[in-house]
Amino acid sequence: MASTILEMRDITKTFPGVKALSNVKLMVEEGEIHAVVGENGAGKSTLMKVLSGVYPSGTYDGQIIYRGDECHFKGIHDSERKGIVIIHQELALVPMLSIAENIFLGNEQAKYGVIDWNANETRTSALLKKVGLKEDPNTLITNIGVGKQQLVEIAKALSKEVKLLILDEPTASLSEKDSQALLDLLLEFKRQGITSILISHKLNEVNRVADKVTIIRDGRTIETLAKKDISEDRIITSMVGRSLDDRYPPREPKIGETVLEVKNWSVYHPIHAERQVIKGINLNARKGEVVGIAGLMGAGRTEFAMSLFGRSYGRRITGEVFLNGKPIDVSSVSKAVEHGIAYVTEDRKTYGLNLIDHIKHNITLANLPGVSRHGVIDDLRELSVANDYRGRTNIRASSVYQMTGNLSGGNQQKVVLSKWLFANPEVLILDEPTRGIDVGAKYEIYTIIARLASEGKAIIVISSEMPELLGITDRIYVMNEGRIVGEMAASDASQEKIMRAIVRGEGKAS
Amino acid sequence: MSTESAPGPQTGVAQDIQQAPRIAVSALVTNLREYGLVLALIAIMVFFQFTTSGTLFKPVNLSNLVQQNSFIIVMALGMLLVIVSGHIDLSVGSVAGFIGALAAMMMVIWPLGPLSNPLVVSIICLIVGGAIGAAQGYWIAYHRIPSFIVTLAGMLIFRGICQALLGGGSSVGPLPVGFKALSSGFIPDLIGPLTLIPPTVNAAGKTIVGSGLTLHLTTIVIGLAAVLAYAYFGLRARRTRERHGYEAEPFSLFVVKTLVISGLALFLVYQFATYRGLPIVLMVMGVLIALFVFVTKRMTIGRRIYAMGGNAKAAQLSGIKTERLTLMVFINMGVLSALGGLIIAARLGQAVPAAGLGSELDVIAAVFIGGASAMGGVGQVIGAVVGGFIMGVMNNGMSIMGVNVDWQQVVKGLVLLGAVVFDVYNKNKA
User: Fold this and answer.
1) According to the model, what pLDDT value does residue A429 have?
2) Is A17–B317 a contact, with Cβ atoms under 8 angstroms apart?
3) More confident position, B94 or B197
4) Are both A88 and A224 inside the same structural domain?
5) Domain endpoint, select from A374, A404, A424
6) Are strands A69-70 and A61-66 parallel, antiparallel or unpaired?
7) How many other CB atoms sit within 10 Å of the CB of residue B60?
8) A119 lies in the same domain as A228
9) Residues A458 and A372 grouped into a single domain
10) Would you call B321 an interface residue with chain A, using a CB distance cutoff of 8 Å?
11) Which residues of A touch B (CB under 8 A)?
12) Residue A99 sits in the same domain as residue A189
């Protein structure tokens, strides 16, 4: 049996008013890939912050034993010196610096403070080779995609002679292809003897690479499964504390008249003015219908939705929008909202929420007139609205006065959803509504979508998770390189059919 | 910082009962933090009351204090919105100086006929101030030029115009008495004075010092009415919350808070009443403070400014017209800078080239001492006002003590740093 590289014993961490972790145990053996799974807010990230010293020794109870010694990390530097490197969900790269500069940031190959650029570059090239990234070390971070940025982060970790690599939701913003490459890389590291802890929501990934899985729920360790016992059902059951017979709520669609119709929609890139991002899209959504838009990363789905929503993206936008058969003006966000269109962004932290304000103020922001008279806000009405929507979307928080920045991803998403539900739209565009959200919260979001559809709203769901689209939509558009390359009823659709449409479309779209 | 009393954590009824004492403690802690600033102001006042052997609270000095610092507080109201929306305005001192010069030229030098009437001039000046704010805000809002740069340019430009208008280093005055009343006048005693103790006249026909006590009755009435209104609205808000089943801060805390603030207010009003009544500028300031508290706390436009400062992109995607809102924030700042300039000129009785020089720093310091965040999205009107008074009391107290002006700056700088460090430390702990 391999030796234990890391043991976390009875870790308890409390925040004011909340016990985030209570007696959590985690045993990781040398050379394995150990997955940590759990719902959002279960305490996975907190546990990793304890391990890496983000929460310094003394602010939590319990012991960390790493390679036989008890460790008291005072900060990330302490843990990194011992070879524990954590790669956070939000990448920590400086966009306007090059790959090489980022990799050796704070660890520059220098003599007396003078940087040896040749050494930096040579070492960077070697590291990039290891992670399989074919880019010039002098390329600026801002010029490469998220998938490649992730690889740069990993290369940076390797430069620190990592023994224990912790990846927090590494594939959350990656396309299918990049995710696969990343997982292969993890397996390769395993062969080289690097131990990894993988925090993930994507159970198929866990299934594929993990040697062991530790499940955390409500700040407690539920169980650790060995390879032979790992199955999606078992994990889900432990994660949510009940078995999920069905991952998608049942729904009987009642589809009515066409509500939204978009004709010949074209958009050009905001900076590279000659690049056409959206190329003449025609699309419609009907009352009570859930319409999906499938496609790969970069297919232009978000760009389409945002350009439609008050020209929030792109330039030289042309095309027509009809609501209930009448042409409408959606040239500003407020006009789009007035006409009953709502867009729930894929990036809730940057575009969706005011993280330094509480739930109540966030929920009413898009429809302040709904809680005010002559520009004066009715405090009590606002409070009851906030509480109402908190109940409806099941936001888990101590009260509506909790800062949204302190909520878990799933609950943040529910706040954004509540905000737009309160604006009472006819057409609701949801962009990656379940990204970075755990299974339990996903089901809740699906239920809300189903209920909205049954109330007669037209819903457009943009998602990169094909099973999700197949599970909750009635009709699916397939997008690729700024065009609609396929349309199918969800009942006829399959992952293969969608992929085939994308691949066929790729030939056409040159 | 939110002023709604944040209820303690609660997840279920059973836990509620267990946690009841904890809720009370946590409510106390949150509220203490909120009123910490007021307590600091009181502590500073008491400190100077002792070190100046009682001069600070003398009615004459109180009037002086208000007249010397009111322009800082007036401009701090605008600056709070600027800072909350994520910007800064370095030009306010220069704009105030320029407006003072403009007003003086219009009233004293230029032959404008009936247009040189102080009221007409004041209104024109406020409009010019708004136009200056619009001109600066336009570049900031619609062309995304950093406010720091635009207003730094404005600071140079308007100081230059101010000096040019006044013809180099000379000052222009004296200003009409009616105009000077804005700063040095007192409200008329409409009800009539109330003589508590008739003055004793000695054999030489002189009044014995300290013998007579006459109260400015209108002042007393206004003071009482304000305190009663404050208590009434506070109580009514509590009632409404309770009736709808929402928790409010603990009653004992509410009573203590109301009593302390009312007591302090009544004490100050009484002091004013024994002198010449409430200064006009204090009334102007009071009305503006009430207006801005209302706008930031209760009105949608206020809420939108906070949302924009907290996350501009999210605000924009929620249908808020962030460009127009930014422009309005700067127009407001321009109008208030102009008012500040008028107050300065009225107090000095003339326009001088250096009027308002460096005051932008006092104004910004007041807002940050009051707990606003340099990142935007956080800050309270009352905080900025109290911050302004802290600066004012320190200026005044140290001057009476005879502290050298150079060292006054050092102390003010340290207080600013200390206040912000304390705030940041508190936030990190929470």
Assistant:
1) 94
2) no
3) B94
4) yes
5) A424
6) antiparallel
7) 11
8) yes
9) no
10) yes
11) 16-18, 309-310, 312, 332-334, 336-337, 343, 345, 350-358, 361, 365-366, 368-369, 372, 375-377, 379-380, 383-384, 398-399, 401, 419, 423
12) yes
**For chains A and B, what is the number of CB pairs under 8 angstroms?**
105
- By Cβ distance, the residue of A16, A312, A399 closest to B7 is A399
CATH code of the domain containing A57: 3.40.50.300
| Partners of residue A220 on adjacent β-strands | A217
Asked if B319's CB is within 8 angstroms of A310's CB, the reply is: yes
Phi-psi region of B349 (alpha: psi -120 to 50; beta: other; left: phi over 0): left
A334 to B2: CB separation less than 8 angstroms, yes or no: no
Length of chain A: 510
Mean pLDDT of A183-192: 88
Give residue-wise pLDDT tens across range A44-73. Answer: 888 888 998 888 888 888 989 988 888 888
Contact B318 A365 (CB under 8 A): yes
**Residues A463, A358 share a domain:** no
Same domain, A107 and A218: yes
- The answer to whether A276 touches A482, Cβ cutoff 8 Å, is yes
Tell me the per-residue pLDDT of A234-243, one tens digit each, with 9 for 90 and over.
887 777 665 5
Query: A351 and B314: CB-CB below 8 Å?
Result: yes
Pairing assessment for the beta strands A84-87 and A372-373 based on DSSP bridges: unpaired
Q: Which of B295, B300, B321 to mutate to test the interface with A (most CBs of A within 10 A)?
A: B300
**Mean predicted confidence (pLDDT) in A207-226:** 87
- Residue bearing the bigger pLDDT, A105 or A371: A371
**Residue A85 structure tokens:** 């490197």
**In chain B, what is the greatest distance between 2 CA atoms, to the nearest angstrom?**
80
Our count of domains for chain A comes to 3
Residues A265 and A124 grouped into a single domain:
no
Predicted local distance difference test score (pLDDT) of residue B25? 59
When CB atoms are compared, the residue of B240, B244, B317 closest to A345 is B317
Please report residues of B whose CB lies closer than 8 A to that of A431. none
Say whether pTM exceeds 0.90: no
Sign of the alpha-carbon torsion through B17, B19, B24, B30 = negative
Contact between chains at A376 and B313 (C-beta distance less than 8 A): no
B4 interfaces chain A, CB cutoff of 8 Å? yes
Long-range contacts of B284-289 (CB under 8 A, 24+ apart): B284/B70, B284/B74, B284/B182, B284/B339, B285/B66, B285/B70, B285/B73, B285/B74, B286/B226, B288/B74, B288/B77, B288/B336, B289/B73, B289/B77, B289/B381, B289/B382, B289/B385
Q: Are A176 and A148 in contact (CB under 8 A)?
A: no
Looking at the structure, do residues A258 and A223 belong to the same domain, yes or no? no
B170-190 tens-digit pLDDT: 888 789 988 998 888 888 887
Computed over every residue of chain A, the mean pLDDT equals: 85
**Residue from the list A356, A375, A401 with its beta carbon closest to the beta carbon of B4:** A401
pLDDT band at B30 (very low <50, low <70, confident <90, very high): low
Residue that terminates a domain, selected from A406, A424, A442: A424
Predicted local confidence at residue A508, as pLDDT: 45
Residue of B7, B318, B373 with shortest CB distance to A401: B7
Q: What distance lies between CA A16 and its chain's CA centroid? A: 27
Does residue A31 have a pLDDT over 70?
A: yes
User: Under an 8 A CB cutoff, do A334 and B319 touch?
Assistant: yes
Q: Does residue A369 surpass a pLDDT of 70?
A: yes
Q: pLDDT tens, A273-332?
A: 788 888 899 999 999 999 999 887 778 888 999 999 988 888 888 999 999 989 999 888
Q: Give the range of the structural domain holding residue A102, as residue numbers without chain letter.
A: 4-240
User: Mean pLDDT across the stretch A399-408?
Assistant: 85
Structural contact between residues A197 and A167, judged by C-beta atoms closer than 8 angstroms: yes
Domains in chain B, CATH or no CATH each = 18-185+279-429 (1.10.3470), 187-278 (no CATH)
Interface of B with A in 181-240 (CB under 8 A): 240
